[in-house]
């Protein structure tokens, strides 16, 4: 599974886990109760972890889109296959993403302040305290460009070019299965771009309005709006594993090899072979060679699921699933 795409997917998973441990529950909790209860250290640490994980997530999605564009368009156009980044370049790019993300959100952590409020009751508030409000507004716009606008443009361009390239390669002799697979891929590219925009645009727009002090019209219900768009952006951590991992055929195949019991076929999902003690010598079911082909001198009967249940009742038998063509192991069941 050590491919460029899977390394990026792993990095995406790490960043999404960070989001779930920080932004997903800390920000809604603070917004709901209205005061800070997590201590001074976390007041400075929350924007650091939260912002870093969000930057890593969006730029990893961008890297995946660019890598797919290079692999599909460039390599299919007879351009040198070495144009795809090497594993060392991939890891270096991931380290660069982490360092740049950490650097970009450090000003937020530095300018956070824990304020004590005595009236109407004693409580603490963790909020930003910038000495230069104009710099704060400019910095907020820069963050929006780097966290949403630029990644969205690069992702949209990459997938659009893939779309155009695949459409341009249609031929009259193309099989129906290939056409169906291509259409499914094209729909998936659209879904990826749309979900990225839906998840992150409202959140970045609201932050931009707040940075520019244009949010006065929603003062009465700002907390509700902020909580809504925040939770909407957090749903990206639920979509990412589906879109970029489990809908990746290669990733599914490799994952099935790592965790075979999850993807093993259940009894009755296909033909089964029954070998009884009266007609065959019971061999080790975990040996691939013995399960691939029965001994020639021992009769083997292949029957349907309903027939196997009736045939197996009078005698003790071993039932196991036919081995797939790729040679992967199957479950062994004792009757």
Automatic annotation (TrEMBL):
Domain G-protein coupled receptors family 1 profile residue range list: 1-244
One GO MF term attached to the UniProt entry: neuropeptide Y receptor activity
Top-level taxon: Eukaryota
Annotated family: Belongs to the G-protein coupled receptor 1 family.
Organism annotation: Caenorhabditis tropicalis
Keywords for the protein's UniProt record, in alphabetical order: G-protein coupled receptor, Membrane, Receptor, Transducer, Transmembrane, Transmembrane helix
TM annotation in the entry: 7-28, 48-70, 90-110, 138-164, 185-203, 223-247
The keyword Membrane appears for this protein: yes
Main location: membrane
InterPro entries xrefs: GPCR_Rhodpsn (IPR000276), GPCR_Rhodpsn_7TM (IPR017452), NPY_rcpt (IPR000611)
One GO CC term on file: plasma membrane
Protein name: G_PROTEIN_RECEP_F1_2 domain-containing protein
Record Gene3D superfamilies: Rhodopsin 7-helix transmembrane proteins
Compartments where found: Membrane
Membrane topology field: Multi-pass membrane protein
Statement: the UniProt record of this protein carries the keyword Transport: no
Chain positions covered by the region annotation Disordered: 290-309
């Amino acid at each position: 599974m050590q491919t460029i795409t899977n390394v990026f997917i792993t990095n995406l998973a790490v960043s999404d886990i960070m989001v779930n441990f920080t932004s997903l529950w800390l920000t809604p909790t603070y917004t709901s109760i209205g005061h800070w209860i997590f201590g001074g250290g976390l007041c400075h640490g929350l924007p650091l972890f939260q912002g870093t994980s969000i930057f890593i997530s969006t730029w990893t999605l961008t890297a995946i889109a660019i890598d797919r564009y290079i692999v599909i368009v460039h390599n299919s156009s007879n351009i040198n296959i070495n144009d795809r980044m090497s594993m060392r370049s991939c890891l270096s790019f991931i380290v660069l993403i982490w360092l740049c993300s950490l650097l970009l959100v450090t000003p937020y952590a530095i300018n956070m302040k824990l304020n004590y409020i005595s009236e109407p009751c004693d409580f603490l508030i963790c909020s930003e305290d910038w000495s230069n409000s104009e710099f704060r507004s400019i910095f907020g716009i820069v963050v929006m460009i780097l966290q949403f606008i630029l990644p969205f443009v690069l992702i949209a361009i990459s997938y659009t070019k893939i779309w155009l390239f695949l459409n341009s390669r249609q031929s009259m002799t193309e099989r129906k299965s290939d056409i169906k697979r291509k259409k499914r891929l094209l729909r998936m590219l659209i879904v990826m771009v749309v979900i990225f925009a839906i998840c992150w645009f409202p959140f970045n727009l609201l932050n931009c309005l707040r940075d520019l002090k244009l949010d006065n019209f929603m003062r009465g219900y700002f907390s509700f709006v902020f909580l809504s768009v925040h939770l909407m952006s957090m749903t990206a951590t639920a979509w990412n594993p589906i879109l970029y991992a489990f809908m990746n055929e290669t990733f599914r195949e490799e994952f099935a090899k790592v965790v075979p019991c999850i993807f093993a076929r259940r009894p009755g999902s296909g033909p089964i072979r029954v070998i009884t003690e009266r007609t065959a010598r019971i061999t080790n079911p975990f040996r691939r060679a013995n399960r691939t082909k029965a001994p020639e001198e021992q009769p083997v009967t292949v029957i349907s699921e309903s027939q196997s249940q009736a045939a197996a009742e009078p005698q003790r038998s071993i039932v196991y699933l036919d081995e797939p063509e790729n040679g992967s192991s199957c479950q062994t069941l004792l009757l």
